[in-house]
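Issue 218. Parser rejects a valid record. Input:
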Amino acid sequence: YRFSDPRRYDIIVFPYRYKDMYFIKRIIGLPGENVQIKNGRIFIDGKALTDLPFDDLVMTEGLALDGVDLGEDEYFVMGDNCNNSEDSRYVNIGNISKKEISGKIVFRISPRSEWGFVK
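Output the parser choked on:
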């Protein structure tokens, strides 16, 4: 992200704060937005997202139940397997700052059956 800012639905890599490992998650909320999860749906500034790249209803709201306000360089991330994902809904992950982002995932090499550019 040297030449552009992260965008909604980009898949990013960032280090886990408490162990020597990395997480791969999708950006849902952008700087300055309010992210709320209620009734299984994700809302940005009060409007439901209708173009999510995953079909599941979100069963666990976590920190986003009452809404999460993002700072000027913060992102709200979630895993595509949203009902079994440790992500910004939980206090040990929380919002991700731009400086924490290691990179963007653009190509998948494993499993071989799903090899190619990611959406």
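Fixed in the parser; the record now loads. The two ends are 17 Å apart (CA to CA).
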